Amino acid sequence: MKSATKYIHAGSHPDPSTGAIMTPVYMTSTYVQEAPGVNKGYEYARSQNPTRTALEEALAVIENGKYGLAFSSGVAATDAVIKLLNPGDEVICANDMYGGTYRLFTKVFERFGIVFRYVDTTVAANVEAAITANTKMVWLETPTNPLMNITDIAAVAAITKAKKLILVVDNTFASPALQNPLDLGADIVMHSATKYLGGHSDVIQGALVMNDTELRDKLYFIQKSCGAVPGPMDCFLVLRGIKTLGIRMKAHCENGKIIANWLRANPKVSKVYWPGFEDHAGYAVAREQMKDFGGMISFELKNDSVEEAKRVLSSTHLFALAESLGGVESLINHPASMTHASIPREERIKNGLSDSLIRLSVGIEDADDLVNDLSKAIG
Ligand SMILES: *Cc1c(COP(=O)(O)O)cnc(C)c1O
Q1: What is the DSSP string of 242-266?
Q2: Closest ligand 1 atom to the C-alpha of 324?
Q3: Is 246-378 the same fold as 3-243?
Q4: pLDDT of 62-108, one tens digit each?
Q5: Which CATH fold would you assign to the domain 3-243?
Q6: Which of 192, 237, 338, 359 has most ligand 1 atoms within 8 Å of CB, for mutation?
């Protein structure tokens, strides 16, 4: 089945009791059993809920995986993955990950004895060089947030397969419409469904997709034991969001291309980070592993002061000043003081994330209106 069809039909089955074409929102905490231990596969809603089941099936289908698991947030999905590990185990991860992932790793899991090694994963050899006898997992994000660095998933997968390590890819920025890490050799795909999967900035949710049954069983056990499950209404919203993922991503990519090129031609802009530029360091890999280049763009101004960045950030009207990304509406963000404020300044600068960097999540409004808005703000 082609992806456009998958987005509409994945996980959708007419409701068995009424024929309702849309999956009902099953607001229930428990299920009546016919006799002790005799049930219809549903016992208690932390363990199973039919709206969640439909969503988890859809997640698996759209990421070309066998199993999907939904969580109450993206970080809850990440949290579940790290709970596969034991004290002393090591994780190799990208050095410019989402700030909340970095915070979870350094501030929560380091206390439990998990060791995280941060490397520039855009060079696969760096991952190999960081492997020790205790390494159990490699955590990638590509494109990265907010610098749009690209890591070659297949190249890293060749290393993790040889060393029997679990390869996890945070696929939030690309979405399943642009990149399918399981096809490239990843073991687990993680999503903040809050972003492109939901697509309308109206829900917080996380997702994991995998092929291996043993991994699925372990992660399902963690999901129900730790309890970070999404409510049925939230599952319904993401199920509905997925139906338009294909056309939304097409529009995000078209607008992204226009805005990236416009910014690059603007004399007040010094640098634009977008993997669709032929001279972007990750262009060749991005072209190979992604279907298009997405609507996430970061840029720096020639006047490289925090004050000037803050002035631009406060001057747009259509681009709303807010954290998050991937919704139909355009957003503008200042990573240093917003999404990435939890990373120490020294760390940030070292990784190329300057004080004046501005990040855009390009929405699906008319491109001319978006360009006008930026044009007035940049001045
Ligand atoms: C937002 C985000 C997360 C965290 O997801 P939440 O749904 O906010 O918990 C993780 N990774 C990336 C790349 C994100 O953008």
Answers
A1: HHTHHHHHHHHHHHHHHHHHHHHH-
A2: 1
A3: no
A4: 999 999 999 999 999 999 999 999 999 999 999 888 889 999 999 99
A5: Aspartate Aminotransferase; domain 2 (3.40.640)
A6: 192
